[in-house]
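User: My advisor, Dr. K., asked me to get a structural model of this assembly before our group meeting. I'm new to this, so sorry if the format is off. These are the inputs:
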Amino acid sequence: MDGHNVNTKGYEYCSGCGICLLVCPLWRKTRSMPHTRKARARALQGGATIEDIATSIDACLLCGSCEPACPEGIGIAAMNMEQRRKLNQLRTTYPSWYPEPSGMKTRIKDNVLHNSIILIAGEYPEANLKARSAVIELLGGNKKVSLAVDDGRDIAGLLEAGLPVTQDRIDDFIRPLRHAGTLVVSEGLLHVPLRKWFPGKKVMGTGEALLSSAYIRKALGPEDLYIIECRGYHSDYERLVKFYDRLRKETGCQINLDLQRIAIPTGASSLQAKKDIEAAGCLEQARWIIRGRSMSRIVVEDLADLEVFQRVTDVPVIHVGQLRQDNS
Amino acid sequence: MHIPVFERGIIPPDPVAPDSLKGIPRQKTNPSRWQGENWQDFVLDLRSRGVTVCESRADCSVFMTDAGGVAYGLSHGVVRPTSAEDISKVLKAAQIHRVPVTTRGGGLTTEGESVAFGGLLLDMSSMNRVLEINPDAMTARTQAGIFWHQLAEILRRDGLDYLSAPLNLTASVGGTLGVGGIDVNSPRLGCSADQAVALQVVTPTGDIVNCSEQENPELMERALFGYGQFGVITEATLKIRKFTPVTIQYFYYSSLRTAIEDLQFIAREDASDYSGILTILDRAITLLVAFDSDGREREFNARWKRNLRGHGEAGFGLHMAWHYLLHPWRIKEAAYIIGRRFKLFPEFWRSEFMHNGKIVDRTVVFSRAVWKFWGGPQMVIPDLSSKAEKFAEAVERGNAVCRKYFRHYTLYCVGIKLRGRLPRYELSCIPPDAADIAYGCEFEPMLRGTNYSRDYLQSFKNEIYDIGVDMGLSYYRFGGMMKGYIRRAMGDELVDKHLAMKKAADPAMILNAEVIF
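Assistant: The format is fine. Below is the predicted structure of the whole assembly, which you can bring to the meeting.
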């Protein structure tokens, strides 16, 4: 299986407009056309093989920024993962940042969860467990919200690397979730597959789930720079661009959106960044996001962004789950 | 049969009189591929000078066509320069080894001007840094490979904006300055090229030269509107301004001529900050009028608005309803207009790009709409540019050609404020007889989902371009595959003058030589 998106057009539809590269963090970092989605599409159209463009395929951070920018509606994120999958079939050694191909969790005994909201919280380091508790509290507390023990992080990693995920593993992951009405999922890469597996359920990121409450929105103001988690945002762009636009108009907060209203990614959630945050260009991206802005606080949706911004600025950086605590 | 052989760069006068061959399709094909003489020596030479040449299929095929998608060609190799020095080395070696060099920015040409048919391709997009923003002088100095949108993203962090640029996010600064660059504020501010205060240019022989209207003015005048013939623009200092969101008013017409007359009235009276015409059909014409400030809009409303003959949307809807009631056999046309209206116009009013009723980032809004509704793997956009007095006739004649060839097409008309008669306007899109304001019209068939042959599209372009020859007009896109028209439209004397200048500047005729000569 792969992370199918709603856009299913392939690279053959690329007209070469290049709008995708304007939002690409790799383009910003390398200034090298061959590293961009446009170049990969054009190269394949021109007869290059998937091995010819392997460096570019591997370099992609899968932030998904290029997909909503594409006027042709090409399913870029799914295509990138598919290309990684094909590339994996042809090579004997994997990039150093790849997860172990056999790195799936063994069966996790997660009970079937009966609350209406299930939080699939992703990676909360020890230091941030309070933030996770705060998120649960803000979403309605333990009576309303169940925390999934199995966060599917291994599945997300394997999908990102284009490595196979067994159906058994997927079944183990989704079985406990089937009674929920809403899935609040920190890992943006899982949004698309979860929508496919549960067509009727609401799948949303932590930020959207929390900011749906006016009580939490009131904690944001013009002096805040709010950092959207990019993968989830770009996977549901048409809806979320309006959600965050309302947020900006209501609170006056600044957001990591560019002039096309694409979320500028740090890339911190990528597999490459987990290996080396600096080499993945995350710090440079964070510097670009804050350049020229005046803010007294940075609020991030993605925990991986906490470290990135803490390394490039002295301004306090908090998780969206800590908004109310921070204001009180 | 004796076939005369001409040395490269020696082009004889056109034996075809401007008024001959009417109605006979003139096929212009891609230039023949350069065969690669001395290529290896050239590459070795460059490597010894520290310049990397990428020769893989993947590297070259990225640039195999341009936005037009009609001309296809592969270079022998690609250089992604990081400095003017890199380009200097490339051009010096190219002169020695006589290797053709094609420069490319965003690749938004439509006649193969930025496609390399063999030889070396210079991918200028790698030179995309903003070097200096000077808020006192209100200028920005930037590497010329930068896309206008990248520049806008950087300027906007300081509340600044460029003056005028094509409504296309991935047009490059260097490429735009080389051909002119037209925006919907060009009736007021002129071409993008006229916003350049100073340039750094690498000449075809590899000299790195700074130029402006005071320093090396001859090179400045040749590099701007020069179609890449007289050097590679590596840096540009551009005028900038404070950023302002814009308010837009739309007026709807059912007569092309009336809409054009009103467009010219607005430009002549300097009644708005932006103006342009965009058609759905030739009986459903939109005149866009926009303003940078409330004061300008108030002045327009008080002084000029009543002179316009266009309808508001509701009035136009009633007008058209009445028209189609009397012409029920054209009901499909009405359905097309309504369908297009409901698909296209919401794109211009997306809430995320609006603030207090004003459009923020007009270039983003329009460019995204352009690619979404007019873009595609193939784009054919012949055009005509004219002095004011001839413009309405030129557009009407071009419209008749469009009707003959296509069911659906769009006309885009805009004025271009001139700065007198500068040398840079010679052999350019600015018609030789235009004074004060020139006007341009693009004729763009809707090709998405259609399957026309290349010959069919070429015949269409030829008929549009024949109008230019017939009426003594100019064109925005006269290079590349349409260069057969340059001598017919501009005359041998002018073309020979520029050819002589080109040969003096570029002895081996290696730099973008297939574009014009």
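One thing worth pointing out at the meeting: The domain at 247-490 of chain B is CATH 3.40.462 (Vanillyl-alcohol Oxidase; Chain A, domain 3).

User: Perfect, thanks a lot.
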